């Protein structure tokens, strides 16, 4: 235990506290196979490059069809200072977030984290507002110590919201049009803009089609396939 504590001493104390949350371990077919701490799920060890666990990614669009991005706080242990989609995190291994019918557990986790990270209250967005679209399986290292290995549920929602970002979680926010996001991706390397790997995968594979159908989000079909994006 002492070695573990020493290992985390260089990180933000609040972020270290969140590393003790319990994630849901799954296999590649999204069957629950156990639970483990967020720390153990993301740690690179001689035995494993992260443990596969459930996650979610929310894409929030306003009434002008602009996508809300966040820049992850410098205090984050994985992918600090990276720009990403609106909200990304994990359902916890608790009864309310383990529930699978209509993806309700992952939706509850998304509502919890939208408030925690961005100050978007459940009165502004509820589980009924979140539309599930698909799942992706991916693996991406943050550095030589930490990695994401996730089965990620993708949700979209269209709403105008009041933001009150948590500075320990979110460094900045911005709304972008499709053209502005394209430019962000095109210039990211030359301007040293960091973009999370899961955001890149979703941008390259799905996002443009979803964006083109925002006037009627109900027209977007639910895809029960798990898209394996591990190279």
TrEMBL record:
Enzyme class: isomerase
Cellular component terms (Gene Ontology): cytoplasm
Protein keywords: Isomerase, Isoprene biosynthesis, Lipid biosynthesis, Lipid metabolism, Magnesium, Metal-binding, Steroid biosynthesis
Domain Nudix hydrolase: 51-201
Catalytic reaction equation(s): isopentenyl diphosphate = dimethylallyl diphosphate
Pathway(s) served: Isoprenoid biosynthesis; dimethylallyl diphosphate biosynthesis; dimethylallyl diphosphate from isopentenyl diphosphate: step 1/1
Cofactor needs: Mg(2+)
EC nos: 5.3.3.2
SUPFAM superfamilies listed in its UniProt record: Nudix
Single biological process term from Gene Ontology: isopentenyl diphosphate biosynthetic process
Signal peptide annotation: none
Domain of life: Eukaryota
Recorded GO MF terms: isopentenyl-diphosphate delta-isomerase activity; metal ion binding
UniProt family annotation: Belongs to the IPP isomerase type 1 family.
PANTHER family, sorted: ISOPENTENYL-DIPHOSPHATE DELTA-ISOMERASE
Identification of the protein by name: isopentenyl-diphosphate Delta-isomerase
């Amino acid at each position: 235990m002492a070695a573990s504590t020493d290992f985390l001493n260089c990180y933000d104390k609040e972020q270290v506290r969140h590393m003790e949350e319990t994630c849901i371990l799954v296999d590649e077919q999204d069957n629950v196979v156990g639970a483990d701490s967020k720390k153990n799920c993301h740690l690179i060890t001689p035995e494993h490059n992260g443990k596969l666990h459930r996650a979610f990614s929310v894409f929030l669009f306003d009434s002008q069809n602009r996508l809300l991005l966040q820049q992850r706080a410098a205090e984050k242990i994985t992918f600090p200072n990276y720009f990403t989609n609106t909200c990304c995190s994990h359902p916890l291994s608790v009864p309310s977030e383990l529930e699978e019918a209509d993806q309700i557990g992952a939706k509850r986790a998304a509502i919890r984290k939208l408030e925690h990270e961005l100050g978007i209250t459940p009165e502004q967005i509820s589980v009924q507002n979140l539309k599930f679209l698909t799942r992706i399986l991916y693996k991406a290292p943050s550095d030589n110590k930490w990695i994401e290995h996730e089965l990620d549920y993708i949700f979209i929602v269209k709403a105008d919201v009041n933001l009150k970002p948590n500075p320990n979680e979110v460094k900045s926010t911005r709304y972008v049009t499709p053209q502005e996001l394209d430019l962000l991706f095109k210039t990211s390397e030359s301007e040293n803009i960091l973009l999370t790997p899961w955001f890149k995968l979703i941008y390259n594979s799905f996002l443009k089609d979803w964006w083109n159908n925002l006037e009627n989000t109900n027209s977007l079909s639910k895809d029960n396939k798990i898209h394996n994006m591990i190279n």
